[in-house]
Amino acid sequence: MVHGVLQVIIDTAAALFGGLMLLRFWIHASRVRPPMQIGNFIYILTNWLVNPLRRVIPGVGGQDWASLVGAILIAIIAAIAKSMAIIPVFMLKIVLILTLLTLFNWVVYGMMGLLILEVIFSWVNPNAPLAPLVSALNRPYLTPIRKIIPPIGGIDLSVMILFILLNIAGRLVPELILSLGR
């Protein structure tokens, strides 16, 4: 019982901060300027780790590598905490596998969340203040699909196709990662 509660707390905190670190990295990588309130929220909640990391990890190639490394560190810490709760003896292999699974899940579910937001904005309010940000973050993944399958009768299927591909990857990649541990 206590183990389950502890795992929920660890997973929630790690997903929040790790997801914000990945979002911060992706905002910089895609050269998107978020609305001020969203940007402030992200930066205030991630500066505690990103700013110290920037002292040792410079932004090479215009990328915010400190944010990506921060997400990886949070995933490692969460994996260590979860493995310590499961098995009292520290096992590097379990931590590595849990770290990879955690990072992968954050990326897949984060991308799915952005796709769902894009669909909602396109249906409900395409002029919503966050719509351009969400669209710009999704564009690098949707553009190649749109080149292969253009809109049919004015209906863009690229979001649905990417969602299906993410679902497939979300099922296959964890199996591959877990097979590394066997």
Automatic annotation (TrEMBL):
Record's keyword annotation contains Transmembrane: yes
GO cellular component: membrane
Keyword vocabulary terms for this entry: Membrane, Transmembrane, Transmembrane helix
InterPro entries: CCB3/YggT
Transmembrane segments: 6-26, 69-91, 103-124, 148-169
A family per Pfam: CCB3_YggT
PANTHER family xrefs: PROTEIN COFACTOR ASSEMBLY OF COMPLEX C SUBUNIT B CCB3, CHLOROPLASTIC-RELATED, YLMG HOMOLOG PROTEIN 2, CHLOROPLASTIC
Family assignment from sequence similarity: Belongs to the YggT family.
Protein name, per record: YggT family protein
Organism: Oxalobacter vibrioformis
